[in-house]
Specification:
mainly alpha; two-stranded antiparallel sheet; 5 helices; 2 strands
Length: 111
């Protein structure tokens, strides 16, 4: 396994944690609701652009080909994604949600 790949043997990981009497990782997860208002959509798209422009995110072109296609076809007006022009816009929104709480170093410095 490449050191940049996420492990996919989740059942083995959970079984090993139970054997070692380590708490189930599901108890350490929490759901953070995100409002999809126009302002939040703009912030999410701007944050995603900042993360990509600052090289914080690395994608495997073969493994994430659908996401790369969504990023390449993404078109926005006033930071609102044009769903008709963008392929896999749901995937792009999911990617934006995944990076929702990530902040780039340049954003911290400028704040």
């Amino acid at each position: 396994m490449d050191d940049k790949e996420e492990p996919s043997d989740y059942l083995e990981i959970i079984a090993r944690r139970k054997k070692q009497k380590i708490r189930d990782p599901c108890y350490d997860m929490c759901v953070i609701p995100v409002n999809f208002s126009t302002v939040e959509k703009r912030n999410m798209l701007a944050n995603l652009k900042d993360l990509i422009d600052s090289n914080v995110i690395m994608l495997n072109l073969e493994r994430h080909s659908s996401l790369v296609l969504a990023l390449r076809t993404a078109q926005a007006t006033d930071l609102i994604l044009d769903k008709q022009a963008t392929q896999s816009d749901d995937l792009l929104y999911a990617f934006g949600l995944a990076g929702h709480n990530l902040v780039t170093f340049t954003k911290k410095v400028n704040s």
